[in-house]
Write a structure and sequence with these properties.
- By secondary structure, the chain is α/β, with parallel strands linked by helices.
- 44% of the residues lie in helices and 13% in strands.
- The protein contains 28 helices and 20 strands.
- It has a 6-stranded mixed sheet, with helices on both faces. It has a 6-stranded mixed sheet with strand order 16-17-15-18-19-20, with helices on both faces. It has a two-stranded antiparallel sheet with strand order 7-8.
- It is elongated and about 125 Å long.
- It starts with a strand and ends with a helix.
- This is Mitochondrial Rho GTPase.
Length: 690
Amino acid sequence: MRKDVRILLVGEPKVGKTSLIMSLVSEEFPQVVPYRAEEITIPADVTPERVPTHIVDYSEAEQTDEQLSSEISKANVICIVYAVNNKKSIEKVTSHWIPLINDNTDKDSRVPVILVGNKSDLVEHSSMETILPVMNQYTEIETCVECSAKNLKNISELFYYAQKAVLHPTGPLYCPEEKQMKPACIKALTRIFKVSDLDNDGILNDNELNFFQRTCFNAPLVSQALEDVKNVVRKNMIDGVCDNGLTLKGFLFLHTLFIQRGRHETTWTVLRRFGYDDDLELHQDYLFPLTLKVPPDCTTELNHNAYLFLQSVFDKHDKDRDCALSPEELKDLFDVFPYMPWGPDVNNTVCTNDEGWITYQGYLSQWTLTTYLDVQRCLEYLGYLGYSIISEQESQAVAITVTRDKKIDLQKKQTQRSVFRCNVFGDSGSGKSGFLQAFLGRNLTRQNTVSEEHMSYYAISTAYVYGQEKYLLLHEVFPDFDVLSDTDLACDIVCLVYDASNPHSFEYCARVFKQYFMDTKTPCMMIAAKSDLQEAKQLYALTPLEFCRKHKMPPPQAFTCNTADAPCKDIYTKLTTMAMHPHARLRCMCTCNRCTFCHLQNFINSELVQTVKAKLYTAILSRSLLFQRPSNSSSLESSLSLVLPSCSVPTLHVTQADLKSSTFWLRVSAGATVFAVLGFAMYRVLLKQR
């Protein structure tokens, strides 16, 4: 909606331009009329459309042609005033004023014109028969009003129509010659229909019509009013109503009827509620709300309500209920967009089914990726889908959560984020692309079917960390060592991939780590890709394992996507865990039986430790059970067998006197202490070797 309206009155001398303005202001005919009235401003609270209105007069006696041209270019609507009792002033409308206005305005954005026949009190006949051919000839003429400044006839109506011609112009909506709506208007109303069709059945039922009415006009339709509307459509269109609901053809017919009956403000109210401007384009403020600000070191994510909305959109278009969007269903989903937002690379960025269709998980993942990488683009997409309207929110900015500064997460050693970025580095041919595609469940055979031009440098899917679903975003960094940007370096975890079968591959990873990440707090993991091939000795000063030990990194993780089934995803869970808990130094994430962690695990699981633990538990539980049921001591062993089914319960050689003796419990406590001290000492000894 415009902030104000500027009305310019032009015409031949002595046709009553100034009298009309003064009669409007004073509500009486002036006895003395100056050559030209000063510009007046009508406040918004006294105008029907609640918009400030400026009224400007023109006087040939006081103004030059240059000043007139300037006023024409600034005007939003021009009223050409003629005297109904003066044929010469009527002829001047077409011979002088309309050509002059067209010469001083842009052809692509004509200023609406109102023809004003003043001094109707001086004649008994109407000038409409003369004016109607003129109106049909010039499409920029909105309407014609006959009035009288002397008896105040139609004065308020004149300026109301002038204001309405600016705020609710007919030109962008309707073509009088063809007597139908213009293509841009049909396109906009079609999008509005599809957004309002919540179940995507091609019909607006009573509930959807009521929601539409409440959204646009803040008031629902009563049942009788709904039936009256549908009856009007039924009488004029065969297929306008189907299954007691309004079809797209019926919806478009209704708005054509509104415009033809002079109620185009109804159509404009609908269009503006759904974000359209005067040119029937979605307004920039609607698509890109200014309320969202993202500070440095913060990321953007979709909140719970946004995911629920996107889920409803998916369900709305997944007509065959196979939890995947076929190309036809995806095209139907994006039919409310002015362009197709997702290209073929999206199918290689998120999870798809065996037919290559984007699954429900992949659909949400792509939205998560867009929100993380380009939140403004996400806001634009949500605007096309009508998020603020369907969710009854002020704007789609409420769908976005801005996470707190990453430095605060590191200080508090916890995070509320659900999306973590992993930048994948590696030399050419090291297996980075295969590593990304394996995250989407694709083995080498399936990866070979993907064309090179449709490959993506991103892959996103979910991983579970301690029972929580998180999104892991993998980004393949172009292997140009000297031109790494801040975006390439900004991430939650670094993945360094080298080809285990190529002796020269590891050197690149080592150089990247030492130059960019060795002195940072960003966790790093080394991936030995193509582990199914013969391992080659890396031509570097240190072996990959020694390099990782030196820099306190987890040992290299063997990985291959050359599998019969989908590749194992354990490594991605490890990456997500490290990204989620960067403060925790996870020294080992393997079962190599060579490192300190594995030696300790083997010691804890040894038969000696398990026997000692079982005897200790047996003694403690024996005393507890004896205190509870001293008369049923014969069932002690069977009870322990139920409590400790995984431990073979040894024959008890402990008497009741021993169990009641403080000396016995002192020995138990001492044994537990010795066990703890020995375990800790062994851990320290093995740690020094590391």
